[in-house]
Amino acid sequence: MTITIKDVAREAKVSVASVSRALNGNGGVTAATEQRIREVASRLRYVPHGAARSLITRRTHTIGALLPDLHGEFFSELIRGIDLEARSHGLHLLVSSSHDGAEDAAAALRAMQGRVDGIVILSSPGVDADFLEANLPEGLPSVLLNSDVKSGAAAVLNIDNFAGTYAMVRHLVGLGHARIAFVSGPKDNYDARQREAGFRAAMAKLAPGEPLRIVSGNFSESSGYLAARELLAGKTRPQAVFAANDMMAVGCLQAFKEAGLAVPGDIALAGFDDIPIARYVTPPLSTVRVRIAELGKNAMDLLADLMDRPGSSAASVHTLGCDIVVRDSCGAHRGGAATTTTTTTTTKSRRSSSR
Description:
This protein is an alpha/beta fold and 355 residues long. The protein contains twelve helices and 13 strands. The strands form two sheets. The chain has a seven-stranded mixed β-sheet with strand order 7-6-8-9-10-12-13, with helices on both faces. Strands 2-1-3-4-5-11 form a six-stranded parallel β-sheet, sandwiched between helices. Helix 9 (190-206) links the parallel strand 6 and strand 7.
């Protein structure tokens, strides 16, 4: 049988209003009465009705996160960062994914409507300004992650993919690697496009005359493995391979081992993201560090700020910097501790004034 607030009031011999005030911490009852009410509620295992409370407060105390996928270390770290910060604000997290693109994303947003006080949306195919206008509930506080969408309806938080990629190419060239191949990510992914643009710009500036070698991947280990095999089948073997994310770099590493190549002795390797597994593969992976959990935390902080300022304009763009993490796979040292080189730490923002 479901225990109601009336049951608690009857058992504690007080009014329903007194139970509500005591359990919500609103005062209006003596300390002794509040303690008695709480003891009765605990003994009866009374759970306040969240939907009823939401009707009164117009808040669900829940935020949503819409991601293109839930598989992999990047997504789990991102969710962890969002969730930890949400809990510090007294909020719960509702997570959904959009595996199949815009239709899935639209269905997820419909399912969350009325259930969340705000939402974090990680860039995915089809989630553009038109999509948001058609599917994002008006007035719902929203933060877009890793997106080129310019929308007054949502704040945007991006990683400085271009600068991070440029810095890694500069590092590899500084080690004497001129023939650098790049394993790109999905063409419809904002991060992937920015990383490829950074690679092209860096090679043009730092290794002029070297032909560009870019092989397509899709951010998965298997696509990195296939890309590495394609590169090895070419006439000239690269001196270094830079994968647009760590998962593809791990796939490359397996392909090189199967081909009998030593990393970094025969070929250097680098990735992007610094997911936890990057430091535990053999050799440990040099990479561009994105503080993934911190990215989630910052997104949640932005969202909480918007939720606390109802009616304010959301238009703002923030950019988080990246670091180069030097481990063994690039050939900078043998067996030494990881070193870190800061590439960019500035945060840019554009915020419209509140009305």
